[in-house]
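Internal ticket #5521
Category: modeling
Description: The requester needs a full-assembly model to guide mutagenesis choices. All entity lines are attached below as received. Residue total reported by intake: 778.
Assigned to: D.W.
Attached entities:
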Amino acid sequence: MREVAVLGVGQTKFGELWDRSFREIGIEAGLQALVDAKLSSADLGALYLGNMASGSLIDQEHIAPLILDYAGLVGRHLPAFRVEGGGASGALALHQGYLAVASGLYDYVVVGGAEKLTDVPDSAASAIASSAADHEWEVVFGATLPALWALIARRHMHRFGTTREELASVPVHDHAMAAKNPNAHYRNKLTLEQVLGAGPVAEPLGVLDCAPFSDGAAAVVLGPLEIARKHTEIPIRIAASQVASDTMALQHRKEFTTLASTEVAARRAFTQARRAPADVRVAEIHDAYSISALVALEDLGFVDKGRAGPEFASGKFGRGGPLTINPSGGLKAQGRPFGAVGVAQVVEIVRQLRGEAKDRQVADATLGLTHDVGGTGATSVVHLLERAS
Amino acid sequence: MREVAVLGVGQTKFGELWDRSFREIGIEAGLQALVDAKLSSADLGALYLGNMASGSLIDQEHIAPLILDYAGLVGRHLPAFRVEGGGASGALALHQGYLAVASGLYDYVVVGGAEKLTDVPDSAASAIASSAADHEWEVVFGATLPALWALIARRHMHRFGTTREELASVPVHDHAMAAKNPNAHYRNKLTLEQVLGAGPVAEPLGVLDCAPFSDGAAAVVLGPLEIARKHTEIPIRIAASQVASDTMALQHRKEFTTLASTEVAARRAFTQARRAPADVRVAEIHDAYSISALVALEDLGFVDKGRAGPEFASGKFGRGGPLTINPSGGLKAQGRPFGAVGVAQVVEIVRQLRGEAKDRQVADATLGLTHDVGGTGATSVVHLLERAS
């Protein structure tokens, strides 16, 4: 298999984009990425689109050829695929696109992620979010996705002494980061007091511990590393692309302060790239709920098990430290359009590695990581990206 | 890229399986295929699952790890992917699984397709079927999937003189075939008079011109051809796997008595396999509506453009002729569980090529073709399968 590089990136603003349709945002991100990659559509081989729930959200399945069509790219009858895996849909689509180029099947592919979540009532969006959990063993008994993550939080607090304040430090961090991100859903700063004082969703998680429902789309163009310099001055090599699964229902796991899928995907990714967690300078990790980020830091190998609370709250993962977490603002503040998230994480890391992240730039960003999760971790996806030397 | 073989197949009965859940049928088909391939789950590399609309149908997205989990295969945290493209979802999943093995990424993968369509009211299933058409340019104006195919039928009749009776010969053929298929949704024979006398759905298509909504699942195990004989006496080589797209809306095509996506996918497939339509002995083609089968015969190159009506009605595609169409009974009579269809087509062809199709056996079945369509042809997928020599 050959080496694969990211040649171009594109992303819409995330937020309540009520004046724009699903297809409009999908096309905007994709065309941005094609232009960024200086790629003629005549060279394109296929489209992979991550999306979680367009059927329920916009009454439209079969969306991959739809985006190709309305982007004006239908003439060559390219293959187009939608890939779904809950909130990890975008990262799974990226994995498929990576494989397509690595195998030599296509030279250039576009990988997109898009979701239009705010055109339905919040109650509907909540039910759809929970459809990434186990319907028959969890949701029919009244569990929701935040309630399940709240169980993980309670257990983490009980077992490791993680505090409510440590949890609350995650959204404070994310909003501080997003303040510098023009694409972010929320750019307001938050204080610890605001997070702690917000109404409960599923205790210990309050409304400000939960990422919002957002509209948004992101896209990348992938191609063979060996010819990447024709398209970009700074090719970003995909050093690893790994997917792992786990039980759907939390109750069927031996332990749920660890997401085994994340642990396994991370181990496979570091092995594939022959790198270690300590080599990573910048990471976009799954923080749909405050606890998600703490568990992820442990499972990805960035901190010892049980230590994420105090270490995160110490501020060491801000800009300027050895590892900057979620410079985009993460799902919590950049926003959470389910299927777009995994691709947007890669867009941010590519911009960081290229040195194009402006106010958000992380110094010495050479190796970056993205981490995307579906549901409560039945799917995890880890990508490692680095500046090609 | 290395050669890929089908090593095992499995399929549930298709029909109204009201006593069985989505996950139960998915697991049944997958485990059958694993047993048929004499494959230990320890050798499995990944799962690819075709499904169109589980979110709308059973309130459950994120179904690929779910099936892995409840099949007892979660321990190794395998990658699991759902692939969606309307009614072509199963065939698209197969294409991804094929690529994964061909590239050398995994040695063995399971490709499944599953849909549970009869646990919702028919009106809901109809709306979901139409979500494979273009919501903004077709469905909001009142078009349904059968109505769009009826437009294709009218145009085909106008342009080529295709008759109502020729259309009706499709379901008569399909039901005669399905009478010998124990997995078929409908095993009753139909007469031309019954089809012509059935109530209208979207004229000229009557209710017996339209494939039913079915529950069902199918699965195949894929592996490298070079080691296939460890698993099966008669390895079936995937000689071609090709996907093509087209506009979502009919009105945006220059001509709609041809599905350009099918023409292109077929051309690519015959090129990949270095074979011609005349080499094919048995084919499972898309016949969601009577007209679909006639258009497919033309676009796949089996008959000249415009000639499918009289040629099909002549009976030449029955068992015993040079090319047997839809020995399973097709979508019309074996059934139409959207995401399962493309995989079930391959299951039938594999059984035919192995000589294991019992009462349905087609003599001298050496090269087989499957043809799956999403919506009105925004996606078409063509596979060619042959007995490995």
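Resolution: model delivered.
Comment from assignee: The first strand of chain A starts at residue 4 and ends at 11.
Ticket closed.
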